[in-house]
Specification:
About 30% of the residues lie in helices and about 35% in strands. It is α+β, with helices and mostly antiparallel strands. The chain has 2 domains: about 130 residues, no CATH class; about 80 residues, no CATH class.
Length: about 220
């Protein structure tokens, strides 16, 4: 009983601490979040990265392959599904000029193509665990809301609206950005509209806010 009372008191104190900080919060979040995004994206061309597939630099030039069998819809990492997606993305990005595409024969009655990065593709490529194409700079327009966690973990979420600068034409193709439905407001961001973002912070012992997860530099599979 005494132990539970101590736990409850600690939770209450933590909650009161957050409420106290919220009540005297004079942070200019718009300026702060802009600075954090620019620090994470100093070139202004790496706000977001979309994955082509699990191909490393020494995998190129890469010839596609076909895998036999049925796709397991419940397996996110089903090899056949991932291979089919890789083949499709290589083809679509080639149409946008980021890969060369060369017909090199057949696998049975299925055509085989070889792909390599073009000079244009190398402008955007990033090798974080796979072949990714990165783009854009976040420009913060306004702060939507500031929300503190209520479970005593000293977290704060700041919601904001932003638009993107430096948007390449290839990501504005609906066929391209529709391949990444899990990427928040990607359609709004890449078509020049306002999108929504969130920065996550943690309070240190002295009440200082530390960024634990920002918006720029995010990767989408």
């Amino acid at each position: 009983m005494i132990k539970q009372t101590k736990i409850n008191m600690m939770l209450i104190i933590g909650l009161l601490f957050i409420l106290f900080l919220a009540g005297c919060d004079n942070t200019d979040y718009k300026t702060r979040i802009q600075q954090e995004n620019d620090e994470d994206n100093p070139t202004g061309n790496k706000s977001a990265c979309v994955s082509v597939g699990y191909l490393a630099p020494n995998d190129y030039p890469y010839t596609i392959k076909y895998l036999a069998g049925d796709i397991d819809p419940d397996d996110r990492w089903d090899k056949i599904k991932l291979n089919n997606r890789l083949n499709l993305r290589l083809s679509l990005f080639a149409k946008e000029g980021l890969f060369t595409e060369e017909a090199v024969g057949y696998d049975g009655d299925k055509p085989l193509y070889r792909y390599d990065l073009t000079d244009e593709g190398r402008k955007y490529v990033d090798w974080w665990g796979r072949t990714n194409f990165c783009f854009g700079r976040i420009v913060v327009d306004s702060i939507r809301d500031v929300e503190n966690s209520q479970d005593g973990d000293n977290l704060r979420r700041v919601y904001f609206l932003y638009h993107l600068e430096n948007i390449p034409t290839w990501i504005q193709n609906k066929v391209i950005y529709s391949m990444y439905p899990g990427y928040g407001d990607i359609e709004a961001a890449v078509t020049g509209k306002q999108a929504r973002g969130t920065h996550y912070y943690r309070f240190s012992a002295n009440g200082k806010l530390t960024l634990i997860r920002g918006k720029s530099g995010s990767y989408t599979l």
